[in-house]
Amino acid sequence: MGALPGHTGPRREGTGGDSAPYRGRFAPSPTGLLHAGSLVAALASWLDARAHGGQWLVRIEDVDGPRCIAGADQAILGQLQRLGLVSDEPPLWQSQRSDAYAAALARLQSAGTAYPCGCTRKAIEAALAAAGHAPERFGELVYPGTCRDGLHGKPARAWRVRCGTDEAPLHLSWQDRRLGAATQDLTHEVGDIVVRRADGLWAYQLAVVVDDAAQAISDVVRGEDLADNTPRQIHLQRLLGLPTPRYLHTPLVRAADGHKLSKQNGAAPLLLDTPADVRAALQQAAVALGLPPLHAASPEGWLAEATAAWARLVGLA
Q1: 167 assigned binding-site residue
Q2: Is 11 known to sit in a ligand binding site?
Q3: At what angle do helices 98-111 and 230-240 cross, to 10 degrees?
Q4: Are 164 and 187 in contact (CB under 8 A)?
Q5: Which residues contact 40 (CB under 8 A, 6 or more apart)?
Q6: Contact 83, 299 (CB under 8 A)
Q7: Tell me, what's the pLDDT at 10?
Q8: Where is the short sequence motif 'HIGH' region located (predicted)?
Q9: For each of the chain's 317 residues, which pLDDT tens digit applies?
Q10: String of DSSP letters for 267-285
Q11: Phi and psi at residue 57, to the nearest 5°
Q12: Is 138 annotated as a binding residue?
């Protein structure tokens, strides 16, 4: 992974001052058990919190209820406990946070930054095709702004947040602790963001922003596949007057076909039956993070050695 550029003490932009105690989090979705890829993000976030002398929290991101597997949340917490990665506070479940998300949407509605949308995915694809935008495989379905100025007789399905216009596009820049400086044109690369879905469920982007603020998260350490979500979340943070954490996006673990190792492509759950299994899983994650070989025999000793190695990697020691 190499040295992380631009390291400073924990700082957050926005309300509540320029600095804050370090508070990190790991936020798995209970759509399956942890695997080698998700452990990389879990371990990095835990090590970063420990190296900073901060707190580490676990949030169960089960806002997308239909995709969640019964019992997977408790199974994930059990896996983390066997790995020695235990939350410093009781875990938070997004499924219990609907009132907080509703309050945030109400603020966006009152400010005129959120509007109802009546478009189906098929209608969005048709509008993009009519405008000469050919669909890209795995590409972003950029919302063309059809309902930005009214529903035009369609029933409301979802709620969206405005992300600039063609005349005044929204370019958002941020600094990642590993990836460095980045900029995204939200207007033309993303389009207006869904914050409440057509099926009535809360969108990930809104939920994560509200919860990071509620838990006073100073640093978000997560997988590189989520880096493109960062400008959307910063935009919502600014609209809601919430602090912006620092971000660090970890390297991805890839399957044999080159794609991200994930539950969707059949990643095997971690084998954690014995202390040797635990140490092997942690060591594999450490290699992905660019840590040097670690030699402690016990999982507890290994984590202490890994914390010191991480502190050196990020310039704290």
Answers
A1: no
A2: no
A3: 70
A4: yes
A5: 223, 250, 251, 252, 253, 285, 288, 289
A6: yes
A7: 44
A8: 28-38
A9: 544 544 444 444 544 345 679 999 999 999 999 999 999 999 999 999 999 999 999 999 999 999 999 999 999 999 999 999 999 999 999 999 999 999 999 999 999 999 999 999 999 989 888 887 766 545 678 999 999 999 988 999 999 999 999 999 999 999 999 999 999 999 999 999 999 999 999 999 999 999 999 999 999 999 999 999 999 999 999 999 999 999 999 998 865 555 555 555 557 889 999 999 999 999 999 999 999 999 888 888 999 999 999 999 999 97
A10: PPBP--SSHHHHHHHHHHH
A11: -115, 155
A12: no
Amino acid at 95: S
What does the pLDDT read at residue 259?
A: 52
163 is in an annotated binding site: no
204 annotated binding-site participant? yes
State which H helix or E strand residue 145 sits in: none
Are 289 and 250 spatial neighbours (Cβ–Cβ below 8 Å)? Answer: yes
CA-closest candidate to residue 291, choices 255, 245, 250: 250
Residue 26 marked as a ligand binder:
yes
122 assigned ligand-binding residue = no
User: HEC states along the chain?
Assistant: CCCCCCCCCCECECCCCCECCCEEEECCCCCCCCEHHHHHHHHHHHHHHHHCCCEEEEEECCCCHHHCCCCHHHHHHHHHHHHCCCCCCCCEEHHHCHHHHHHHHHHHHHHCCEEEECCCHHHHHHHHHHCCCCCCCCCCCCCCCCCCCCCCCCCCCEEEECCECCCCECEEEEEECCCEEEEEEHHHHCCCEEEECCCCCECHHHHHHHHHHHCCCCEEEEEHHHHHHHHHHHHHHHHHCCCECEEEEECCCECCCCCECCCCCCCCECCCCCHHHHHHHHHHHHHHCCCCCCCCCCHHHHHHHHHHHHHHHCCCC
Which residue's entry shows tokens 């966006």?
108
Angle subtended by helix axes 299-313 and 275-288, to nearest 10? 10
Asked whether residue 160 is marked as a ligand-binding residue, the answer is: no
